[in-house]
Every structure is written in structure tokens, then in C-alpha cells.
Amino acid sequence: MKITGKTKIVGIFGYPIEHTFSPLMHNAAFSALGLDYCYIPFEVQPEDLKSAVEGIRALNIRGINITVPHKEAVIKYLDELSKEAKLIGAVNTIENKGGKLIGHNTDGRGFIKSLWDDAKTRVKGKRVLLLGAGGAGKGIAVSCALEGASEITIANRTIKKADELVGYLKRNFKKTKFSVIPLDGHEIAKGIAGADILINATSIGLKGKGLLPISQKDLHRDLVIYDLIYNPQITPLLKIAGRAGVKKAVNGLGMLIHQGALAFQIWTGKKPPVDVMKKAVL
Ligand code: NAP
Q1: Cis before residue 46, ω within 30 degrees of 0?
Q2: Which end of the chain is more exposed for a tag (fewer CB within 10 A), N or C?
Q3: Known catalytic membership, residue 8
């Protein structure tokens, strides 16, 4: 990559930030299309977020991804929000449009694109069982409702959080049926029996986080399983799915790639080279 006087800067704000795959993914995409852009990781502590956002304007940075722990806190410093960012209440991508900062959320749409790309599945008219009501869970629930899921059942360890999320969804989406169940084996087995798509948006499955209360006999072959976790690539849930003969079961790598690809398109206006981005991450 050759940095010149004309190079446009984009990047990511987060804390910590060393683990991010985004610079690899975006810089590979810029190179592949011969675009004079450079993507840089910025370690931004929570107390410095306001100054960092002011810096986007001051330095004419073209776009910024936002990751943990700033996705919600950043909203108050922006000029405008996209419809999805407003509904999800979190921003993962900032577009600098001539000094006006617009917040987008590409996580949910990234998930929907990956579900189609990797599992050839549409959400419209489907019954979704969603495990998790944290930041990712909320984004997925809103996106599934926007896509026209017929039913969304949410299971979470802290039931109050699932209740609050479902209350919010019921106020905003009238055509989808919402309910809450506890994150316990018996209830989840019943939920799976009545679901078309099972989504894991909890942290369970990450190293040291234990196992979901799901066993092989609870799964049916036509269930579509999407595990947001991608490290390890074959997650504990995907192992069980394999043993149960589930035909479509995928990890969250595609969501990571597609949320990045959508941000790339917002910043550059160009069609993202998704295969190049995928290769860089792998
Ligand atoms: P978060 O806001 O911290 O939420 C964590 C969720 O996991 C909550 O529902 C939490 O339940 C649940 N949880 C955590 N530890 C648990 C345990 N020991 N037992 C039961 N439930 C537990 O995190 P997030 O941002 O939503 O991320 C959730 C997962 O999605 C993470 O694994 C993250 O890596 C993954 N993710 C993937 C992508 C992608 O692009 N593929 C994007 C975003 C996130 P409580 O509410 O009870 O705490």
C-alpha cells in the first residue's frame, strides 16, 4: 500500500482494539480495487470518545467503524442516524458526508446477507428462536423483524433483559409475534421444535464460556442454525448440529465479513470485493 498526499483515511474506534480483523479485511479490499484508501485501528478509551469523534471532522477522516464499548455511547455525538441504527439503538459505522456525521448499523444487515449467502435462507415468514438479548441479540432481533419474521422467541440468561427487548420490539413491529423463554434446556428444546431458524447471539461457545443447554436430540435436520461465534470456526453448537445431521448450520464469519462489506460500500460507493475480504479474514 502506498500512502500519498491524496490517501483517504478510514478506520475503527474501540477499546481494546488489538484483536480486530477489520484493517486486514478493508485494506485487502482497497488494494484489490486499486482505491487510494487506508484503514487504521484507533484505540479510543471511553472518556476520549467525544474528542475522537470531533477528530473525524477535524482530520477529514472519511469513515469510521465503531466497536465495543462505544456502539451506543457514540450516538449522542453524531448528526444523523440511519433507520436501522435508530431502531437498534447502536452504531457500528460512521459516514462523514462533507462534515456531517451519519451513524449506520450494518451488523443486522450483515447477518441477513450472510444468512442468505451462507445458508440460502430468508427470514421472511420464518419462526426464529434467538438466544441472547445483548447488543448483538438486539441488532439481530430488529433485523429479523424488519425482514418480516413471523415469530421471534428470545431466550436469555437474564430474563429481564429479554422482557425489555421484547417490549421494545412489540411497540415497534406489529406484524411479528414476540415471546420470551428462559435459557433452560427444557424450554429451549420446546422452542426448537417450533422454530425454523435457531440463532446463537450469546457469548456461550467462546472459549471458557461453557455450553448451551442444547443436545443433539433437540435438533431437527431442517432447522437452520446460525451461530454468531466464529472463533473457533466449528463452534460447540455447530459440532452438535453436525452430529444431528442438520443440513444448514453456519458460524458468524459471514456476518463479520458482510457488516464490513456494507461499511465499505457506504464509504466508497463501490461494490465490495466480498471474496477478497473473506480471504483476508480467513
Ligand atoms: P453482549 O452485549 O455482552 O451480550 C452477551 C450475551 O450473552 C447476553 O445475552 C448474555 O446474557 C449472554 N451470556 C454471556 N455469558 C453467558 C453465560 N455464561 N451464560 C448464559 N448467557 C451468557 O455481547 P454481544 O455484543 O451481544 O455479543 C454476543 C456474541 O455475539 C459474542 O460471542 C460475540 O463475539 C458475537 N458477535 C459476533 C458478531 C459477528 O460478526 N459474527 C458480531 C457481534 C457479536 P445476559 O444478558 O444474561 O448477560
Answers
A1: no
A2: C
A3: no
